[in-house]
Amino acid sequence: MSNYKEVIPKVISGELKLKDVPEVKKYVEELEMLKKYTNRAKSTYDEQVAGFATGAFAMIHQGNWAQGIIDEYEVDFEYGMLPMPTNGNDGIAVGNTNFFRINKYATKEQQDGAAKFLDWLFTEKAGQTHYTEQFKLIPPYEGFDVSNLNPLAQEVSRYATAGKTVGWTFNLFPAGVDKDCSSAMEKFYADQINTDKLLDEINQVWVNAAKQ
Q: Which letter, b or e, does each residue of 81-92 get, where b requires 16 or more Cβ atoms within 10 Å of its Cβ?
């Protein structure tokens, strides 16, 4: 949704309920349709990605960070990214996965060494190769050789180049909601609550988290 920066604060303040947001309502309705095809076991992240890599699962809800585990297996099929076409959008969510920082409390020698490492990583050929092939990251700057990007990184890069991306929104969520919302999701997949009740419970988690 284009106006999520306006909607999320309203949900957190209690002014607006999640189930009254059309895009959110449609999303959980689609989860309900997919539920009968979904693995409901409490698989770990590693087990989930491994299951995909070995062909046990047709698709998983992950990003290019899953490449590290996929590479541990001999995958004999083509794979890529599939957008969630909610509200007619055919883009994938893309954002910075992390940031490199230099610790201001480190010694001057350590800080200088860290700065030299970052210079090497982004400006030297060997460093750039390490960045794309060992770190399996997508270059933030031009000038990198991207011919050997891994399959998922290629997909993210392709969508980004085409302008078919949507931004991450979780940095606007109240702290801790990812953990507390999981309980509601578990009940939903155990058929203990329906989509309406699911959104009610998640909504309450958000409001309570904002008060802490």
A: beeeebeeeebb
Determine the 3-state secondary structure of 92 from DSSP. Answer: strand
CB-based contact 178:103 (threshold 8 Å): no
Q: Which residues contact 137 (CB under 8 A, 6 or more apart)?
A: 97, 131, 153
Q: Is 6 helix (H, G, I), strand (E, B) or coil?
A: helix
Structure tokens at 164: 């078919």
The Cβ of residue 206 has, within 10 Å, a number of other Cβ atoms equal to: 22
What pLDDT is stored for residue 142 in this prediction? 83
In this prediction, the residues of the chain whose per-residue pLDDT falls under 70 are 85-89, 97-98
Q: How far is CA 156 from CA 105, 129, 138, 180, 208, in A?
A: 35, 18, 8, 29, 35
pLDDT for 174 equals: 86
Mapped onto helix, strand or coil, the DSSP state of residue 166 is strand
Separation in Å, CA 94 to CA 68, 70, 101, 111, 192: 18, 20, 21, 30, 33
Domain boundaries, the chain: 108-160
3-state SS, residue 165 = strand
